[in-house]
Prior knowledge:
Elements lengths: L1 E3 L2 E4 L2 E3 L3 E5 L10 H8 L7 E5 L6 H12 L6 E5 L10 H9 L2 E4 L4 H8 L3 H12 L3 E5 L1 H4 L4 E5 L12 E4 L7 E4 L8 H10 L4 E5 L3 E6 L3 E6 L3 E5 L5 E2 L12 E2 L2 E5 L4 E3 L4 E3 L1 H4 L1
Parallel strand pairs: 4-8, 5-6, 5-7, 7-8, 11-12
Antiparallel strand pairs: 1-2, 2-3, 4-13, 9-10, 12-15, 13-14, 14-19, 15-18, 16-17, 19-20
Amino acid sequence: MIILNNMLLKNNEYLPKGLLVAIGGREDKEDDLEILSTLVSLVNTDVPKIEVITTATNFPQETGEEYIAAFSQEEEISVGILNIDSRETASRPEFLDRIKTADIIFFTGGDQLRITSILAGSPIIEEIKRRYLEEFCIIAGTSAGAAAMSRTMIYGGDSSDAHQKGTVNLGDGLGLIDNVILDTHFVERGRFSRLMQVLSINPTNLGIGLGEDAGIIIEKGHIIKAIGTGVIVIFDGQDLKYSNVANIRYDEAIGMENMIVHTISNGYGYDLSARKYLHPGDLS
């Protein structure tokens, strides 16, 4: 590992200086606020500045007020709401200026297609990517806001028939992280088959299923640490021995052999590059 232009370089790839925080949805906003408090604690400034982007939701006012109330339970925090609801507003200079000075940029839940269709390729997203790579800036998202982070994004597919070929919809996400596909509300909505189908098609990727009130902090682009009260499920298809997905018709059931599955909870982690399970002592 070497340092070039104030950025870490490993295996000919730049390691981001910022953090990603992906949350599975329904994080506690009223009682212990464990995930949101952990998020704020990652910022080493006297008055952390948070910008909440409500693009994903159809209820930006209500959602924004909910997060203002939640974050305001923490001491000395500045919370702003960015209701970016069109390609035009995604180019507003005043919004871009606020992104440039935020310590935490937080994407709410809703519909991840709203995030990508409105924000992808916009000046705001390009600035978010630059800051994540070059500065210590935290990019966080819950539910749809987490699902949109990866380069390949799940945006639909009913869990009840996700074991059948062709029933999961994939598109381009924001590209903040490569070779990982994120799914949310994972345990509670029974999305195991959905993510496993995606990996049968893309076995070199890792699938990360984020349970509710559970999240991961991603450091240096590859070290993840679980936070919250829920569970994280990790699927590794790299050593997949067999899949019938290329030989069956659409709507037929997919069969796979040797899909590796891990679960991590608060304090445990995983190295995405080494594909290694990390115990609490490994993360200290």
